[in-house]
Amino acid sequence: MALKIATLINLDTRLIIPVNENNFNETVKRAKKSIVSIEKANTLLNYNPLSFDEGIKKCFS
Fold this sequence. Notes:
Strand content: under 5%
Distance between the termini: 18 Å
Shape: flat
Helix content: 25-40%
Order of helices and strands: HHH
Structural class: mainly alpha
Radius of gyration: 16 Å
Number of helices: 3
Protein backbone atom coordinates (compact mmCIF):
# COMPACT_ATOMS: atom_id res chain seq x y z
CA MET A 1 0.00 0.00 0.00
CA ALA A 2 2.80 2.42 0.88
CA LEU A 3 4.50 1.81 -2.47
CA LYS A 4 1.23 2.40 -4.32
CA ILE A 5 0.61 5.69 -2.48
CA ALA A 6 4.19 6.87 -3.02
CA THR A 7 3.91 6.10 -6.72
CA LEU A 8 0.55 7.87 -7.09
CA ILE A 9 1.82 11.06 -5.45
CA ASN A 10 5.29 10.96 -7.01
CA LEU A 11 7.39 10.22 -3.93
CA ASP A 12 10.69 8.33 -3.91
CA THR A 13 9.72 4.67 -3.44
CA ARG A 14 13.35 3.78 -2.70
CA LEU A 15 12.86 5.31 0.77
CA ILE A 16 10.25 2.71 1.72
CA ILE A 17 11.55 -0.37 3.52
CA PRO A 18 9.39 -3.48 2.95
CA VAL A 19 8.16 -5.40 6.02
CA ASN A 20 5.88 -8.37 6.61
CA GLU A 21 4.00 -9.86 9.54
CA ASN A 22 7.22 -11.39 10.90
CA ASN A 23 8.51 -7.88 11.64
CA PHE A 24 5.80 -7.31 14.27
CA ASN A 25 5.55 -8.99 17.64
CA GLU A 26 1.81 -9.63 17.98
CA THR A 27 0.51 -12.14 20.49
CA VAL A 28 -2.80 -12.63 18.67
CA LYS A 29 -3.05 -14.26 15.26
CA ARG A 30 -4.81 -12.04 12.76
CA ALA A 31 -6.72 -13.03 9.64
CA LYS A 32 -4.57 -12.84 6.52
CA LYS A 33 -7.43 -11.23 4.63
CA SER A 34 -10.63 -9.71 5.95
CA ILE A 35 -13.31 -8.04 3.87
CA VAL A 36 -16.25 -5.86 4.89
CA SER A 37 -19.21 -5.90 2.53
CA ILE A 38 -20.74 -2.54 1.61
CA GLU A 39 -23.48 -4.10 -0.51
CA LYS A 40 -26.24 -2.78 1.77
CA ALA A 41 -24.85 0.78 1.56
CA ASN A 42 -24.69 0.43 -2.23
CA THR A 43 -28.27 -0.79 -2.44
CA LEU A 44 -30.06 1.34 0.16
CA LEU A 45 -28.04 4.54 0.00
CA ASN A 46 -26.82 4.42 -3.61
CA TYR A 47 -23.30 4.67 -2.15
CA ASN A 48 -20.51 4.40 -4.71
CA PRO A 49 -17.09 4.72 -3.06
CA LEU A 50 -14.01 5.91 -4.88
CA SER A 51 -11.38 3.40 -5.91
CA PHE A 52 -8.20 3.31 -3.83
CA ASP A 53 -6.29 5.21 -6.53
CA GLU A 54 -9.01 7.86 -6.90
CA GLY A 55 -9.24 8.34 -3.13
CA ILE A 56 -5.48 8.81 -2.74
CA LYS A 57 -5.31 11.24 -5.65
CA LYS A 58 -8.23 13.22 -4.19
CA CYS A 59 -6.58 13.34 -0.72
CA PHE A 60 -3.33 14.70 -2.12
CA SER A 61 -4.54 16.98 -4.90
